[in-house]
């Protein structure tokens, strides 16, 4: 049986760049350790925007240019990117349909674990998309390996994922 780890948007702009937080910076060593110790396949997602970000719906709601393709902020942080063995999944929306397609190639999946940023936006969105397509595969969210826009919204997102029958560990 295969185990899968999804590392969501551990990019410079979300860690210590345009939308960075102390909590995001603090989880990097933990996420690195999770990846190094993980016995299974690890996939990374990468929030990806174009130069026209401010003209998009997201840009009107969150008017902070970030993760513009090709910029330093768009890059997965170096210490984690060095561990990447699969192609990063670029996503232009919070939840990734391409992630679902990549997971279709996996066979005999025992569980899918999520870590990353931000708990309350892209982690929960991708977990919900995966849950919709793979309702019988146990989904695990490692709370210690996630950070939200704020500590309060991080906790709310974890509670919402529990209600949607995901297992939250390391709270």
Structure description:
The protein is an alpha/beta fold and 171 residues long. Helix content is 38%, strand content 22%. It contains seven helices and six strands, in the order E-H-H-E-H-H-E-H-E-H-E-H-E. It has a six-stranded parallel beta sheet with strand order 3-2-1-4-5-6. Helix 6 links the parallel strand 4 and strand 5. Helix 6 packs parallel to helix 7. The longest helix has 16 residues. It is globular, with a radius of gyration of 15 Å. The two termini are 26 Å apart.
> What pattern of helices and strands is seen along the backbone?
EHHEHHEHEHEHE
**Unreliable stretches covering 5 or more consecutive residues:** none
Gyration radius over CA: 15 Å
The main β sheet shows up as: 6 strands, parallel
Number of strands: 6
Share in β-strands: 15-25%
**Number of helical segments with 4 or more residues:** 7
**Shape estimate:** globular
Strand order of the largest sheet: 3-2-1-4-5-6
N-end to C-end Cα span:
26 Å
Instruction: Give the overall average pLDDT.
Output: 97
| Helical fraction | 25-40%
Derived structural class = alpha/beta
Give the secondary structure arrangement, pairings included:
Layout: E1 2-8, H1 12-15, H2 22-37, E2 41-47, H3 57-61, H4 78-81, E3 89-91, H5 97-104, E4 109-117, H6 119-133, E5 139-147, H7 151-163, E6 167-169
Parallel strand pairs: 1-2, 1-4, 2-3, 4-5, 5-6
Helix pairs in contact: 6-7
């Amino acid at each position: 049986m295969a185990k899968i780890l999804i590392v969501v948007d551990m990019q410079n702009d979300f860690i210590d760049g345009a939308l960075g937080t102390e909590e995001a910076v603090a989880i990097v060593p933990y996420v690195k350790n999770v990846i190094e110790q993980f016995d299974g396949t690890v996939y990374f997602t990468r929030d990806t925007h174009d130069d026209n970000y401010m003209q998009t719906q997201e840009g009107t709601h969150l008017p902070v240019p970030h993760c513009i393709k090709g910029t330093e902020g768009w890059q997965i942080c170096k210490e984690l990117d060095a561990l990447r063995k699969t192609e990063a999944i670029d996503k232009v929306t919070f939840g990734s349909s391409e992630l679902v397609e990549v997971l279709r190639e996996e066979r005999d999946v025992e569980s899918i674990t999520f870590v990353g940023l931000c708990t309350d936006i892209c982690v929960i969105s991708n977990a919900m998309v995966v849950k919709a397509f793979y309702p019988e595969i146990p989904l695990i969210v490692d709370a210690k390996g996630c950070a939200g826009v704020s500590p309060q919204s991080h906790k709310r997102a974890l509670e919402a994922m529990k209600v949607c029958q995901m297992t939250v560990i390391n709270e």
